[in-house]
Amino acid sequence: MAVESIGTIYSVNIPGLTDSADIQNAFKAYHYGAYTSIATTAGIGSGGLAYWLKEIESDIALLEARPSSGGDATSSAPVAGDFTPSGIPDGYIWVDLDGSMTSSVIGATAIYNNNAPTSNITSGVIWVDKDASTSTTGNPFIPAAIIAAKGDLLAGVSNDTVTVLTVGSNGQYLKADSSTTSGLAWSDPGDLTAVSAGTGITVTNGAGPIPSVAIDTATVVDLNTAQTLTNKTFSFSSNTVTTTLAQLNTAVSDADVASIAGSETLTNKTLTSPTINNATLAGVTKVEEIIEAAAVTSFSATGTIIHNVMDQGSVVYYTSAASANWILNVTGSASTSLNNLMTTGQSLTIANLVTNGAGAARYMTSIEIDGSSVTSATKWQNATAPTAGNTSSIDIYSITAMKVANTSTVASAFTVFAAQTRFA
């Protein structure tokens, strides 16, 4: 005996058309899906009304197991196993209570109200301000309604506390001011609080944040006003006066003070490091007036010898025997190049007196000016540069540097004339 299904929407069994008529078996097949009686729902198979009733019952149980509020406020996050069937439902809301949940938890997980709640408050409660009209005290955000006018600023009063600083007047600027509630203040242009006026200086409000400072020329010396200076001492950082001395109006005769324009005779005067331009020595009557200073050193010529004409003068005598061939580098001083010291049309003549011993005879191999080689611009006496020195002698190297062009390229700026002469 076999059963067969009728219907295409839901499968329901009846006795097979070839089976003998048996009303009891017919009910079993129709209800349980087979000719056998079923003692528990676990044995119900597909093909009977009991099967479809079981499916409906299971679906109802699943729906009843879902959370009715759409969310919970608990001390731990939900996991999939907390739900039947397993899985967190879509739209479920969980509010973490951080383990401090009490019996006073309010029913809703969120409150949409004009005012902040004051009772039944517990950790995890969410409040949404309905019209943003509540003050910032205790408010988790700053509502736009706190700003009342264009240019208003929010400034900190203390930790977690703000206030509104209203906008200042046109042209004012903002500055720090610890005496105010906000720690800030609007100030007028030309604020004088940070400026101290000294003698002869007047401070007034200016057109901007910086005050206007004026100098009283009746008290303070300037460069553009003719003034009379009494009992003043002039101190110059150099010996070259580049500004124009229009007039030194003092009652002093030319016999006592040397003028710049006059022809003066200086007797027993000492000039310390003077700068003399276009000077002419005329009417020299004493030999000490034309004696030239020379540098005498026990240095042994070797490597690169630097001759600073402003420090050493034009003649340098090396009394110890040269220990190796050397290069001569001619400069103005340690801080002034010869190229900057001289102008086109000027010349400089120097002499190096170098001692050679009885052994190897050393000699000058090349000449530099300001550290740059001028070999291509050097013309040697008899058209031949020296290739050796003279033993047991003093070789004098006479060098004349003529500046022929105003250029930073030293080899193009100078023509050098050189000669080696033996003295024994």
Could you give a quick summary of the protein structure above?
By secondary structure, this protein is mostly beta strands. It contains five helices and 22 strands. Among the domains are: 63 residues, no CATH class; 130 residues, no CATH class.
Q: What does the model show?
A:
This protein is mostly beta strands and 424 residues long. Among the domains are: 3-65, no CATH class; 294-423, no CATH class. The protein contains 5 helices and 22 strands. It has a 6-stranded mixed sheet. A 4-stranded mixed sheet has the order 14-16-18-19. Strands 1-2 form a two-stranded antiparallel sheet. Strand 1 and strand 2 form a beta hairpin. The termini are far apart.
Number of strands: 22
State the assembly state of the protein chains: single chain
Please state the overall shape, judged from the principal axes of the Cα atoms: elongated
User: Which runs of at least 5 residues are low in confidence (pLDDT < 50)?
Assistant: 99-108, 241-252
**How is the main sheet built?**
6 strands, mixed
Strand residue content: 25-35%
Arithmetic mean pLDDT: 77
Secondary-structure content class: mainly beta
Write down the Rg.
Answer: 55 Å
What share of the residues lie within helices?
Answer: under 10%
State the strand order across the main sheet: 13-15-17-21-22-20
Succession of helices and strands: EEHHEEEEEEEEEEEEHEEHEEEEEHE
Number of helices: 5
What is the terminal-to-terminal distance?
Answer: 151 Å
Features:
424 residues, mainly beta, six-stranded mixed sheet, four-stranded mixed sheet, 22 strands, elongated
